[in-house]
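[09:14] KT: can someone run the structure on this one? pasting the chain below
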Amino acid sequence: MIYCINPDCKNRENPEEMDCCKSCGTPLLVRDRYRLLQPLRPLNTYYYTEIFEVSDRDHSLKVMKILKSHRPELVERFEREAMTLQELNHPGIPTVEFDDYFTFTPANQSQPLHCLVMEKIEGKNLDQYIAHHGPLSSNLALQWLRQCIEILDILHGQQFFHRDIKPSNIMLKPDGKLVLIDLGSVRAITSTYLAKIKGQLDVTTVISGGYTPPEQIEGKALPQSDFFALGRTFVYLLTGKSPSQLPTDAKTGQLIWRNQAPQVSRPLADFIDELMEFIPANRPQNTRVILRDLTRKGLLLKSVQRALNSPQFKYALMGLLTVGAVYPLSFPVQAQYYYQVAWSAHREGELQRAKRYYEKSLQFDASDSRVYNNLGRICELQSQAECAVLNYNKALELEPENSLARYNLAGFYDGAGNLEGAEREYELVARSQSPLAVSALSNWARLRILNADPNKAIALSLQGVQKTDTSKVKSALHKNLGWAYWMQADYDRAQTHLQQAIALNENRTDAYCLLAQVLEVQGERENALDRWQNCWEGESSNPDVRLWRTLARQRLQEADLL
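[09:31] RB: done, structure tokens below
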């Protein structure tokens, strides 16, 4: 059975062999590609959208979301979902290709339908999961909470926030991984948007009972609003009860839920309450802070910090000091305190002060790989090679999956001319699930070019292009492709990829230098001189660029342009 896409059709079900709907005449092969197999929710006039399982021309199954309404604000929201999904690349977000958003006009209709085709996520949403399995254990909740924050880290990192997190918008795949769906409410974190909410101008409000934070109800959603909704979601997952069914504290507005979830550890419960703080400023301020704290050690530390700030602890401490007792309970707190001081100094460029406080932090907790990585970075900036390698390797010894430390070590080797060591570390990062994997892939490809292996460089770069939509990273990959094709004397392809690199990042100095050389070989002297000018004037610390600038100066002097 095949369905007609026309929502106004009187009889939408058709035999598989039909080419056009027998009732309204609309083509059943949408865009010469998709057939609608079955609706994934009831076809109801209540919904603005319809959702179908569809078969692509290669017989793979996907999901098509169809907007029936023509209201401008709904069309804008639908387009925003499409563009957001196209920009993001993460297993926790449904995949949408660049040509998977389109319009389609049914037979005898004047207004087009807006259509979005996306990856079909197998599994159940978390609403369905809890209905079948009951509340989560504390351990599983901690695992899922971390997965959700990692997905939000990608979303927020691309300057978007979701605005409609709830159990039904999180899918659990058969492999146990979570996927955040329904990005129709997503908003860009822009200065214009923030100005609107600050000035209380009209901003579309999205409300899901029990999950939406108070500031969003007032039309002033912030990135931290996602944390509130996520906290409320986990209250439901841990209690099996909707937050709207639970009482709140009359004085603080805090949800009273812990008595409904006796299986939850106190540190995790404290953390969920922090996510749901009434005032956004009292919630964690970004995903990085949450990921840092969202470990057993981090949760315990936050719990200890709360205890240390309590009046009860202060009185107890006075008693202990009276009898001369000091207990190393404060060690984790001291370590974290010195780390925060060091990190603040590090960001301000006060490297010696940062180094001193990182080292103090290690006196209280010698197992924090973040500290060793940051010390390695400071040593590298201070041209202390042995110190940099020692600290990066110590970070990796403590946490082999610390991709940032491994990427930094690779970069250090790269800059020091140890290309074999750099390639080894870049390859390990490139094969990981780290957000740095594609950047590592790009650098690995560049090293293959320097080792006169353009075939491998092309294969790696093409792999990277398929994995990212980040303009600067994609620009570097196209630069590698141009360079490698130039080495193979495939000048047309080289020119195409180098021009693409520049289109994606107009400050890509090495691409201008390479393009100048390609244009010279092709006999385009005037265009080549323009690119040599860009090569000469551009900013770059790349050692290859320093060599090419020598050529640029020579060419420009010969043409009396210097």
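[09:33] KT: thanks! The CA atoms of residues 465 and 474 lie 6 Å apart.
[09:34] RB: yep, looked fine to me
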